[in-house]
Amino acid sequence: MKYFLSMLVASVMIGTSLTATAEIWEDYDLSQEVTELTVIAVKPNYVDGYLTRLEGTWVNSMQVLKDQGAIKNFAVWAANVADSPNVFLTVTYENMGAMQQNAEQYQKMVAEMTKRFESNEEENQEISQGYEEYREIVDRKVLSRVQYK
Predict the structure, then answer these.
(1) Is residue 123 part of a domain?
(2) How many secondary structure helices (H) and strands (E) does the chain include?
(3) Does the predicted TM-score (pTM) go above 0.85?
(4) Fewest CB atoms within 10 Å of the CB: 39, 71, 74, 129?
C-alpha cells in the first residue's frame, strides 16, 4: 500500500511539472540590455602576463568605446588559472542594435585610440599578435538578463 501511494504521489508530481508552462513576456522578460561574453582558455603559465597585457590592448579599446557612449560597460573576469577556460571578457550594450557599429563610429574610435595611445601603438600591435601563441577563444555568446515578474 505504501508503495502504491508513493508511486501515485510521484506520478502526480511528475505530471504536474510536465504540464506547467512558462511564457516569455508573461512569466518573465528578457532585458533590452545585452552582454557579449567571450570565453578564453589561456595556458596556465601565461594567465598573469595575458591579463596584464590585456589592459594595454582590449581594456584601452573598451574604455574609448565606453567614453564615446558606444558601450555601457565592460569587464575582465578570471577563474582559477588551472581551470580552462579561465578568462572571460564581457561587454554590455544598451540593446542589440548598439552592437552594430557603423563606419562613422569606427573611424571615431580609431582616431581617439590613435590620439590616446599613439606612443604605444607598435608595442600594442606586437602584444596582440602574440596572444595566439598562448590563448584560444573558446566561445562567444550574447546574453540577455532574465527578469522575473
Answers:
(1) yes
(2) 5, 4
(3) no
(4) 129
